[in-house]
């Protein structure tokens, strides 16, 4: 008898968990938000043997620096995700190789690694991460922004006639009217 874990034969088979569902709320399933800004922490040392070709080494180094500026890098720096450092180096090496000479099998492996390290939407969700949308970021509250908002309101009011009681007038786009 073949005993299968729930969800099916394959890893992540079946529908993805919905962090906004009632079941997820009951189970305490939430996604950890990663700020949608550049990570400024120092990248770790390159863990693989250097490539033989100078051009490839340079491209791998650029890719490595780029990876560690992504929002996911904040999570990769955490102790529980240190195991990903070698996987990330393999991702950088393989993605560089695919840029130079794409091969279908290499691209397939690259896609699998991207899922494991959180470089795809499915990978982010599987790891319990989400990158904040710009709208989720709190607006900066400062004297400058308050003063600028008042100026814009005054300018808007000056452009309207005294009989006009509408607060805002939005131009409407009509489809098919060029």
Structure explained in plain terms:
The protein is mainly α and 178 residues long. The chain has a domain at 22-135. It contains 7 helices and 2 strands, in the order αβαααααβα. It has a two-stranded parallel sheet. The protein is extended.
Present the secondary structure layout.
Elements: H1 22-27, E1 32-34, H2 54-67, H3 73-76, H4 84-100, H5 104-117, H6 121-127, E2 129-131, H7 143-159
Parallel strand pairs: 1-2
- Biggest sheet features: 2 strands, parallel
Rg (CA only) = 24 Å
For the record, give the distance between the C-alpha atoms at the N and C termini, rounded to a whole number: 65 Å
Mean pLDDT: 80
Helix content: 40-55%
Number of strands: 2
Work out the strand percent. Answer: under 5%
Short précis:
The chain has seven helices and two strands, in the order αβαααααβα. A two-stranded parallel sheet has the order 1-2. The longest helix has 17 residues, at 84-100.
């Amino acid at each position: 008898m073949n005993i299968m874990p729930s969800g099916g034969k394959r890893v992540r088979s079946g529908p993805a968990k919905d962090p906004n569902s009632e079941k997820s709320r009951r189970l305490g399933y939430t996604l950890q938000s990663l700020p949608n800004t550049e990570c400024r922490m120092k990248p770790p040392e390159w863990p693989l043997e250097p490539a033989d070709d100078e051009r490839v080494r340079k491209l791998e180094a650029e890719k490595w620096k780029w990876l560690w500026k992504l929002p996911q890098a904040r999570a990769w720096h955490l102790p529980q995700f240190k195991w990903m450092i070698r996987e990330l180096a393999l991702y950088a090496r393989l993605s560089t190789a695919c840029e130079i000479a794409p091969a279908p099998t290499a691209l397939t492996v690259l896609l699998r690694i991207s899922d494991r390290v959180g470089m795809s939407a499915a990978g982010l969700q599987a790891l319990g991460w989400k990158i904040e949308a710009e709208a989720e970021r709190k607006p900066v509250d400062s004297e400058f922004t308050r003063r600028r908002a008042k100026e814009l309101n005054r300018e808007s009011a000056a452009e309207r006639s005294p009989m006009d009681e509408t607060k805002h007038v939005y131009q409407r786009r009509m489809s098919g009217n060029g």
